[in-house]
């Protein structure tokens, strides 16, 4: 067996967002071989828990023995146990390991589901604490940490760390302190050693999503899987597991499963662009036009040209003259009106409610929030916004996607608008990382296109387009795939030309007034 075996002992979730099924996905995605024993059968989904029933002690023990009698176990993750009986059953079973070969154990002391429903009998607290003493590491959220330490729930990460230190020493166990419930941004987590020192701290952007069902289950089983590979590397297991988790949370909206607090996208990094694994295998080695990774690769040259444009470089460093930026923004304000119509057409043509909602939201956001960014900059500098002519490039680009939309060619339309997300997010994120500073003259532009919410929308747009490419590939509709691919690449070229136009030889620039202490003073 080349895969380390990771055992999850947990309750179930029929919708696979949390619990045992989610643990198995996590373990598998991270390269382990997942085995499992069910402690409780839970009827739950993204909206909550309706009921659950504990598996009786004998059956739980028999499941555990079935695993141990058949294979070496490299790590154990323990999730929902529910009752004192289940806890004591698992406790006795663990004590049967030869102490020198007991695998690393990660306990996620599940008490309440993400939905707020209780999954734990409070009378079992002492038994749980005794079990935790056998573990390598325990991963309570702030409310579980409060219960375990008999203190009020922490309001700040510093308070949570204090409680974590207390618990680590009391139970002689490593403690992962999680900041998910604190609402702070960035979200902080840390791992504390049993001797009470902080080994590692992590800080991640809080993903603006309500789809966080099962994050605790995923983090603990990811740590167990990392430990199965490297039993001595607890600090690294924690930071690597946490980094993996971030990606799955960032992709949760693209997965868009269920009606409530949807699950994170456990398999995001193996299901390239939401193309399912079997489909990916089927497509592997075929025409690069059949995956978005192939499209992105094909646009490499154009994207490199964008990066080298004088306009883009000066926008990044902040040395771009106001008049050039003003010209670009004027054209972009006109562009946004047409782009919004294209997204509204996509909403009109969308085959599913999810896609319709996504494009409609985009049509609204670009006309209201994004256009506001343009208007405020231009108006405060006395530059005309509406009474101007679209440039030849603005006209050609907008005609490109509107033609597809008006001909009701949905797949081509969404392929043509994808670079408006993807190229902007790529450029915005990079420029912001390299050049962001408080006195940057174009900081609002950098902030808008590097915003995590824009990244989330970009991921959703990519997932939707990828889904349609995949469907076309499954149908063998090569013609449609080729038209989508061409539409995408043409838009990448239009993006380049659009950025470049403020430096065209024959451009007529608007005159810009300079803002002084909030007042506008003409400088021309
Ligand atoms: N919106 C978010 N963005 C980024 N990370 C998050 C977000 N919400 C939670 N996390 C991370 O998810 C992990 C679990 O955190 P949390 O404190 O929510 O645990 P939990 O309550 O056990 O999870 P669950 O929601 O599964 O019950 C932590 O690593 C935390 O930093
Ligand atoms: C079975 C199970 N374990 C853990 C959680 C925590 O999210 C859940 N909802 N369900």
Automatic annotation (TrEMBL):
Pfam families associated with the record: Phos_pyr_kin, TENA_THI-4
Superkingdom per UniProt: Bacteria
Presence of keyword DNA-binding: no
Catalytic activity: 4-amino-2-methyl-5-(phosphooxymethyl)pyrimidine + ATP = 4-amino-2-methyl-5-(diphosphooxymethyl)pyrimidine + ADP; 4-amino-5-hydroxymethyl-2-methylpyrimidine + ATP = 4-amino-2-methyl-5-(phosphooxymethyl)pyrimidine + ADP + H(+)
GO MF annotations, alphabetized: hydroxymethylpyrimidine kinase activity; phosphomethylpyrimidine kinase activity
Pathway given in the UniProt record: Cofactor biosynthesis; thiamine diphosphate biosynthesis; 4-amino-2-methyl-5-diphosphomethylpyrimidine from 5-amino-1-(5-phospho-D-ribosyl)imidazole: step 3/3
InterPro entries registered for this protein in UniProt: Haem_Oase-like_multi-hlx, HMP/HMP-P_kinase_dom, PM/HMP-P_kinase-1, Ribokinase-like, Thiaminase-2/PQQC
Keyword terms, alphabetized: Kinase, Thiamine biosynthesis, Transferase
Keyword flag Transferase: yes
EC number in record: 2.7.1.49, 2.7.4.7
Domain Pyridoxamine kinase/Phosphomethylpyrimidine kinase: 13-265
Job of this protein: Catalyzes the phosphorylation of hydroxymethylpyrimidine phosphate (HMP-P) to HMP-PP, and of HMP to HMP-P.
Protein's UniProt name: Bifunctional hydroxymethylpyrimidine kinase/phosphomethylpyrimidine kinase
Species classification: Bacteria, Bacillati, Actinomycetota, Actinomycetes, Micrococcales
